[in-house]
Amino acid sequence: MHVVDTIFALSSGLPPAGIGVIRVSGAAAGDALLALTGRDSLPTQRKAVLRRIVDPRDGAVLDDALLLWFQGPATATGEDLAEIHCHGGRAVIRAVEGALAAVSGLRAAEPGEFTRRALINGRIDLTQAEALGDLLTAETETARRIALANSGGALRRQIDDWGGTIVDLSSRVEAVLDHADEDDIDEDSILDVLRQQCRALAGAIARALRNPPVERLNEGINVVLAGPPNAGKSTLLNRLVEREAAIVSPIAGTTRDRVDAAVRRHGVGYVFTDTAGLAERTDDPVEAIGIERARVAAQTADILLWLGDDAPPHVDGLTRIIPVHPRSDEAARADAVEGRIRVSAHTGEGIEDLWALIESESRDLIPRPDQAAMNQRQRDLCAACVSALDDAAVERDPILLAESLRAARASIDRITGRADVEAMLDSLFSRFCIGK
Ligand SMILES: Nc1nc2c(ncn2[C@@H]2O[C@H](COP(=O)(O)OP(=O)(O)O)[C@@H](O)[C@H]2O)c(=O)[nH]1
Ligand SMILES: [Mg+2]
C-alpha cells in the first residue's frame, strides 16, 4: 500500500500574530488531534471546539486552542483535515509544531503541499491551483477578482466545455469508422458536419485567445510620457501618480534617465514612465543616452501620452497615442491644437478627463472578470488545440480526422492537468508558501 505522510504547517501569517492557524492533513490528522488533546474521541465535524492542547510526550500544557475537524474526502485537501487555532506567539506556534512533529506519521509540509494534495485528490484542477497561486500574489482588485473566479473553477468549466465538445466529435468520427463498410450511412455528409463543427470550435477557442493574458494584470499598463524638453512631462507624471516620482525643474534636460512610477486606479495597475523626451537633440552624452532610452520606452509602451505641439511621432506597433496640450493654465498656451486634451498639472484642469482616456484605452489590454482569462501555459495549449482542430476541419480521411481530434483533446487535458501533471507541479508549487 502507498502510504502518504500526514503533513502540518502554519497556514496563517508569520508570527507573532493574534492567532496562528496550524493545518494538519492526512490519515493521521485525527490521531494528531487525539494526541494533542489527550482525549479518546474527536470533536464533532465542522464545529469549532475549545480544547486544552498538551504535549503528548510529557503532558505539558501548551495552549488553549480552537479546533476544527473535517473528515475526508470532502475536505479542501481531499484528506482528513484538522485546524488548530492557537495563540499566535512564536513560542506557542513552535511548541505546537514540535508536539505535532512528535506524533507518528506526521511531518512538516513543503511549500504548496496542501494545494498539491487537493489537486492530486481531484478536489481542484490545475487551472484552479494556478489561480490560487495568483490569488496569493494578487495586488490589484481586478487581479483578485479574476484569480478568485478561476480558483472557483470559472476557467475549468470553460475548458471542460471545450473538452466535452471534442470528446463528442471524436466519438462521432469513431462511429463513422466503425460502420465504414455499411452502405446505409452517408459517411461524407456526416464527416462534412463534423468538419464544420471542428472549425466552429477552433473559432471559439481562438476568440478566447484574443482576450488579454492574465499576466497583464500583474505587469500593469505601461503609459509612457514623451515630448520636447520642458513640455511638462515630469510634472504631469507626478500629478498622475500623486507623488514626487520624477524631478521637475525649469532647466531643459533635467530628466536624463527613465523613471517608472506604479499607481493603482479603479482596481487596475499602471506603470507611468517618464522619459528624457523623444524629440530632443543634445550634445550632452548622458542626456543622449536618456533620449535613446526614451525611444526604447516608447516602443514597449501600451499607451503614449504625447506632450509636444507637433504631431506625435510614429512608433512601430503603437496605436494608442493620446495627444495632450500641457501647461494649459499658462496665458501663452491658452489656445490648444484641435483634438488635444487640455491639461494643467498645476491647476488640475483636464487631469480627470485624461485619466478617463487612459482608462478607456486600457480596457482592451487587461482581462475582464467575465472573460476566460488564461496564463501563458494555458494559452500555448489552447493554441495547440486550435491548430489540431484546424487540421481536423480540412482532413478528408476519417482516420486522420480522428487522430487530429485526439491531439486537440490531449492539449485540452493538459490545461486542466488530466495529462502530464507531475511535469509542471514542481514549478507551480514552488511559488506557494508553506501552509497553503
Ligand atoms: N504653469 C505651469 N507650469 C508647468 C506645468 N507643468 C510643468 N510646468 C513647469 O514647466 C517646467 C518644466 O517642467 P518639467 O515637468 O520638468 O518638464 P519636462 O522636461 O517635460 O519633464 C517646470 O518649471 C514646471 O514647473 C503646468 O501645468 N503649468
Ligand atoms: Mg522631465
From TrEMBL:
MnmE helical domain: which residues?
126-433
Q: Name the positions where (6S)-5-formyl-5,6,7,8-tetrahydrofolate binds.
A: 23, 83, 123, 436
The entry's GTP-binding residues are 230-235, 249-255, 274-277
Spell out the coiled coil positions from the record: none
Q: Which residues bind Mg(2+)?
A: 234, 255
Binding residues for K(+): 230, 249, 251, 254
Q: Which gene encodes it?
A: mnmE
Q: Tell me, how does this one assemble?
A: Homodimer. Heterotetramer of two MnmE and two MnmG subunits.
Annotated Gene Ontology cellular components are: cytoplasm
Keyword Nuclease in the entry? The reply is no
What's the name of the protein? Answer: tRNA modification GTPase MnmE
Which family does the UniProt entry place this protein in?
A: Belongs to the TRAFAC class TrmE-Era-EngA-EngB-Septin-like GTPase superfamily. TrmE GTPase family.
Domain G: start-end pairs: 222-312
Q: What does the cofactor field's note say?
A: Binds 1 potassium ion per subunit.
Instruction: Offer an example of a GO molecular function term for this protein.
Output: GTPase activity
Do you know which InterPro entries this protein is assigned to? G_TrmE, GTP-bd, GTP-bd_TrmE_N, GTPase_MnmE, MnmE_dom2, MnmE_helical, P-loop_NTPase, Small_GTP-bd
Enzyme Commission number:
3.6.-.-
User: What UniProt keywords are attached to this protein's entry?
Assistant: Cytoplasm, GTP-binding, Hydrolase, Magnesium, Metal-binding, Nucleotide-binding, Potassium, tRNA processing
The listed locations are:
Cytoplasm
Q: What does this protein do?
A: Exhibits a very high intrinsic GTPase hydrolysis rate. Involved in the addition of a carboxymethylaminomethyl (cmnm) group at the wobble position (U34) of certain tRNAs, forming tRNA-cmnm(5)s(2)U34.
Question: Which organism does this sequence originate in?
Answer: Stakelama marina
